[in-house]
């Protein structure tokens, strides 16, 4: 009888000490899946993590495969049609204004993981995650927020007023990173990701958030600028890998590795660029768009990186809008075969089918290695040596720029399998529901 009682006490103690998993969701911006599978990539921590963890080779992104829509999908489980974030920069309706990014959290129309965690009594944190500025659901928040015009203060001083709590940046500088400036924390620099890792480690150790989101950006900058196979891109991969190593080392040293699940994924992959299309130059040459903003216009494209949405002037009558759309479709369709083979033209109905922006009249959807710009001068097509993402895909089309998923923690593989769409594939919309299951919180994705 005594032995049974002792075993019962032991069982209760084991259950009590088996704490619910905390989750750190890390995105490596532009994490191509071949970065993980190619042993020549300078990513020893990621390669080891892939071998020791649950690894899903293919994450199929939402339309478009772009940073802000994808990051919002990762924390909502919703497609852009539902959560409302369709691009990084909002369309300016041909106005001569600085780019307005989708920074603000109240733009998101569906429930986020931060909200669910807070409603369940948990603590949340976020480091440079897009579309988080002003979020009331993030306890410790350093949002992605930066000036798009010349300002009289440094970028770091620009962001300080929107961080929460108000003194969190000063606390991180004092306890983790040292003084932060445009020199010591410059987006796209190789030291950037390491500084972010220092912030993550301090927040993890000091506040132990139940759910934290982290955005590592350097790989995106270098692939856009220099292409996906350049030496600079390899250096950026090494920088991101180093940041992952710092976070893993901290969890090991502070005895938190058994209570924290690390999830590493990308917001999208990348393709190596060959050509760049300039659809607004076509509109200008055909009298549908002014050569400079603020002029007369009927239609205008907004680049998504690879693809581009076309919008019509809302002041046009219904008949004028129809004629404008038909004219643009005709112009695009009658390009030489060598050029016409580089893209598809999606109607508004097809955009809705892929859960894209319902206000776009058309979408120019290039094939792999081709992207779009917002340039209004010059020829329709030019050579390009950088990298692209931001594609849109018709149903059944193989993705050009998938990313991957690594889940490192005390997680049952069979649990993850239930969220896969194929043995080696997960939809990006399934990652948020999976995280809720890991956190042992109900998945109640609903409109706010």
Architecture overview:
The structure is a single chain. The chain has 448 residues and is an alpha/beta fold. The chain has helices at 2-17, 33-37, 44-52, 67-74, 80-83, 113-119, 155-159, 168-177, 192-207, 218-226, 231-253, 279-285, 318-333, 337-340, 348-353, 413-417, 431-438; strands spanning 22-28, 54-60, 124-127, 140-142, 211-216, 260-265, 271-272, 275-277, 299-303, 308-312, 343-347, 362-366, 370-372, 381-383, 387-388, 403-408, 425-427. Helix 8 packs across helix 9 (192-207), helix 9 (192-207) packs parallel to helix 11 and helix 10 packs antiparallel against helix 11. Strands 4-3-5-1-6-16-2-17 form an 8-stranded mixed sheet, sandwiched between helices.
Keywords:
448 residues; alpha/beta; eight-stranded mixed beta sheet; four-stranded antiparallel beta sheet; 17 strands; 17% strand; globular; disordered N terminus
What is the arithmetic mean of pLDDT?
92
How can the largest sheet be summarized? 8 strands, mixed
Query: How much is the radius of gyration in Å?
Result: 23 Å
**Number of helical elements:** 17
Brief write-up:
With 448 residues, the protein is of the alpha/beta class. It has helices spanning 2-17, 33-37, 44-52, 67-74, 80-83, 113-119, 155-159, 168-177, 192-207, 218-226, 231-253, 279-285, 318-333, 337-340, 348-353, 413-417, 431-438; strands at 22-28, 54-60, 124-127, 140-142, 211-216, 260-265, 271-272, 275-277, 299-303, 308-312, 343-347, 362-366, 370-372, 381-383, 387-388, 403-408, 425-427.
């Amino acid at each position: 009888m005594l032995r049974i009682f002792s075993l019962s006490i032991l069982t209760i103690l084991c259950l009590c000490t088996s704490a619910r998993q905390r989750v750190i969701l890390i995105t490596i911006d532009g994490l191509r899946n071949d970065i993980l599978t190619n042993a020549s990539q300078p990513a020893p921590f990621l390669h080891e993590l892939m071998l020791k963890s649950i690894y899903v080779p293919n994450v199929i992104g939402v339309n478009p495969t772009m940073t802000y829509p994808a990051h919002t999908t990762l924390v909502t489980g919703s497609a852009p049609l539902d959560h409302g974030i369709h691009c990084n920069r909002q369309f300016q309706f041909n106005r001569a204004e600085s780019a307005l990014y989708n920074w603000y959290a109240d733009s998101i129309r569906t429930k986020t993981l931060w909200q669910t965690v807070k409603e369940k009594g948990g603590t949340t944190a976020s480091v440079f995650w897009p579309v988080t500025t002003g979020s009331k659901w993030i306890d410790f928040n350093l949002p992605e927020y930066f000036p798009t015009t010349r300002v009289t203060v440094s970028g770091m001083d620009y962001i300080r007023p929107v961080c929460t709590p108000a003194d969190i940046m000063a606390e991180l500088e004092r306890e983790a990173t040292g003084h932060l400036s445009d020199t010591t924390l410059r987006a796209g620099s190789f030291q950037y990701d390491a500084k972010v890792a220092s912030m993550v480690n301090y927040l993890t150790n000091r506040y132990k958030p139940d759910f934290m989101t982290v955005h590592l950006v350097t790989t995106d900058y270098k692939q856009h600028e220099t292409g996906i196979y350049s030496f600079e891109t390899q250096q950026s991969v090494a920088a991101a890998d180093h940041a992952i190593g710092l976070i893993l080392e901290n969890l090991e040293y502070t005895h938190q590795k058994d209570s924290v699940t690390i999830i590493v994924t990308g917001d999208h992959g990348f393709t190596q660029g060959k050509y760049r299309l300039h659809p607004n130059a076509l509109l200008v040459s055909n009298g549908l768009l002014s050569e400079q903003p603020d002029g007369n216009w009927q239609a205008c494209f907004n680049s998504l990186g690879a693809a581009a949405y076309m919008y019509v002037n809302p002041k046009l009558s219904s008949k004028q809008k129809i004629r404008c759309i038909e004219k643009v479709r005709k112009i695009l369709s009658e390009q030489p075969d060598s050029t016409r083979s580089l893209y598809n033209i999606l109607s508004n109905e097809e955009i809705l089918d892929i859960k894209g922006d319902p206000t776009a009249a058309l979408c120019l959807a290039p094939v792999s290695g081709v992207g779009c710009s917002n340039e209004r001068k010059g020829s329709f097509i030019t050579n390009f040596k950088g990298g692209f993402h931001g594609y849109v895909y018709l149903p059944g089309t193989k993705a050009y720029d998938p990313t991957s998923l690594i889940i490192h923690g005390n997680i049952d593989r069979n649990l993850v399998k239930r969220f896969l769409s194929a043995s080696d594939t997960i939809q990006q919309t399934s990652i948020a529901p999976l995280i809720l299951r890991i956190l042992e919180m109900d998945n109640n994705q609903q409109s706010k």
